[in-house]
């Protein structure tokens, strides 16, 4: 009973509000209010995971298997506000919540179970991560990991491109990427089916670069999932 009093007291002093609409949250609402959750602009790519506008966009850049996004990115819409809060307003809990909700959606609507051995997030550059305090894509991976019951691990690293690495890939040349991705030295991903995740997919260049590193290091397959898809 005492705990309840303490919680009521804390809610009174530090009220929790929905970051999208500002309404105060009920105990059963971990991050977004029920109305905002229900009106997210869902993309439903998981219903046609092997053949949708994302897979078409990526064909030729990597061996595409499944490509999915939870919501559609729309300028001035809910998705833009969510991503802005997640990336620039110190709200890492939004990333985890998006992962949790998308994981539930994949299980309940897509019938997913046991498709992957490991969830891997696209790494941020270490300096950027230090400034932000967290990697938003890792938070998305963590939420997915909880609701899909699959482990997530940061097996990739990102570092500045140096001139000694003379063989730029086609993608890096296309995008003028001055950073490269690598598998961390201590990691072994041989034979694993990997779900690679990021916050947003626009051109797909970053995701493809990471996917190709995972495949070159022995991953059996790489599927892609992002919080949002669309221009930004
Ligand atoms: Zn709300």
UniProtKB/TrEMBL annotation:
Q: Which Pfam families match?
A: Pribosyltran
Q: Taking every annotated instance into account, which residue ranges of this chain make up the domain Phosphoribosyltransferase?
A: 138-231
This protein's superkingdom? Bacteria
Could you say which protein family the record assigns here?
A: Belongs to the ComF/GntX family.
Show the PANTHER family listed in the entry. DNA UTILIZATION PROTEIN YHGH (PTHR47505:SF1)
Name of the molecule in the record = ComF family protein
The protein's organism comes out as Algoriphagus lacus
